[in-house]
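lol ok so funny story. i was supposed to be doing the assay writeup but got distracted and ended up predicting the structure for this chain instead. priorities right. anyway since i did it might as well share w the group, maybe its usefull for someone
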Amino acid sequence: MTIPSSVALIAISNGSPPGVPNPVNALSAHVRQYLQTELVSALKDPSMLAIVLVGRPDGRGVFSAGADIKEFSGSSGGSVTTSEPGGIPTLNDLAHLMEGSSKPIIAALTGACLGGGMELALAAQYRVADKSLKYGLPEVKIGLIPGAGGTQRLPRLCGVRYALDVIVRGRINCSSAEGMKFGFLDGVATNEESVVDCAVRWASWASKLPPITLESRRLCNRSVPNDDEGMQNEDMCDFALQSCPPKRAGGESAHATVEAIRASFELTSFLGGMEVEKNVFNDLLYHSLQGRAYRHIFFAERASSSGKRKSTNSLAKGKGTIGVIGAGTMGRGIAISFLKAGYAPVILLDVNPKGLEAGVKYIQQTLQVDAKKGRLSPSKMKAALACLKSSTDLSSLADCDLVVEAVFENLGVKRDIFSKLDSIVKKEDALLLSNTSTLDVDAISSSLSPKRRKFCAGMHFFSPAHIMKLVEVVRGKDTSADTLETIRAVTKLIRKIPIVVGNCDGFVGNRMMHPYTTESTLTLVGHGGGEAGLTISDVDSAIGPKYFGMALGPFQVSDVAGNDIGYNIRREKGLLRDPKTGQVGKNRSQGMRYTEIADEMVEKMGRLGQKVQKGWYNYDPKVGKGRKPLPSTEMQQLLDKYSKDSPSRGTKLGKDEIVQRVL
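and the output, tada:
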């Protein structure tokens, strides 16, 4: 690869200070200062006829994953919109410098081109890429909007429809093929050339064009085009708002993106639109509590996934035999997660042949549906199916490198399983993990021989395990640091977020959920009953996505997870009434606020949730693929029974009052 003397090659990676890792080419103050210096130098040099901006000099790796978000905690508009002291340029300064360049700038895009990185690419006169490119503007996911011209330049380049799709959804997966289709890219490198070769080829061609051509390539000089499908731009913005979550339920940044995009075509000047973008960005940055929460989550997730040491275990490299004990709802989902990550073989074990058969069938159908919907390639689906093994014999797990126990919440059963694994599993350093949601990990670990206990921990998935991202990595008193790091690495490989937690009742997730799910049931029983009383769906509607903002209401969550899980937890805690003697559990103290409605629906009615098509709601396989909650006459009758003695029986509560009561 030879760079002509008339083309300046500027690599973002060269702007990082020596010895400071910057694997994603974050646009920190040091990097921005470097880029400004190099750009100005190239523009002043009469021998330079064109400029190529690339992520790394060899054209590999990422272009830029965007702004250095750590700077957003400062007082300078996150180094995006407001100039800093000391002459350090903002991203906006760089974008304006590039867009106003008297020489053609070609952005050579590879790997991740996100946020501020994409905004710099939009400021270039030409954009080329290779097939590794994944671009997008994800700022909405951290409670902000693009602040360096993204909301103004993208609509001018690709139209409002596409800008709304990329910005409001916070997409990060746009491909080079998509970029060519919608006009974001001007060219894609051929198989015979690198992206730098491609960019140099474009630079040589563009340097020979008349100045008027360069002027037309500046997006600030363009107006927003009409929609190809004939829809008015303002109508598309109105339609986009309908899909946004309510402002009060985490939707402030989503609504703000639409406001900024609307300014791109409603205002007569580019600078006017940029002023709106700047004001909206700064308002979100400095005044939005939602935005602060989103950014806290962003940093917390990354901190939780980053250990102090790196595991050398082969499991951390995606290799090893996996055993999953229990073919129920949790076991199936856990097995799917490992299969999709490429672990082989994955052995699903259940002592119940019918339950095992049902679990295997569910896994096969789920993988096939994923392939049909494009979430999994056909080749990976076939490989995953081939790697799935099943057994009813615990000895089939003898060669496992990692075993996850996922049976129901009963300490005696779990201890018995681990005691048997102690003598069955051959590898002394095999990880023996429990998916318990509340039980004492040390009590489970104590059934192992002392030498194995350092390899034992909790690995608590949330239901449905193949979809939910969170995994609690429960540290027992004997769990070694190496074990924790290996579990953390494995969890990331199966595309989930590991959170290391201490060993206590409910750990973190269920300890947080228990008070408000309990209060939801007590509120329902206190005010439900009769034709006018509070209903199950009233509570879920208030807490759910259309009002307070939880992804699901508490009763829907219970139905998805399985109502038997909570039942078994209450039994282990000694809270249930003995069905034979009628005596209440030994740990249910006198005067304790408690209702048995959730116990009876499981124990006497078998209403376990979606998996049996009845729980707090009914479910019909013909309606919403069996996942749409439908009212249940049987549950209403049960609610009438348990609410009959409440002084507030049969009274409605407003959504705000429900939220206040529950949370």
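The two ends are 62 Å apart (CA to CA). Residues 74-78 have pLDDT under 50 and may be disordered.
back to the writeup now i swear
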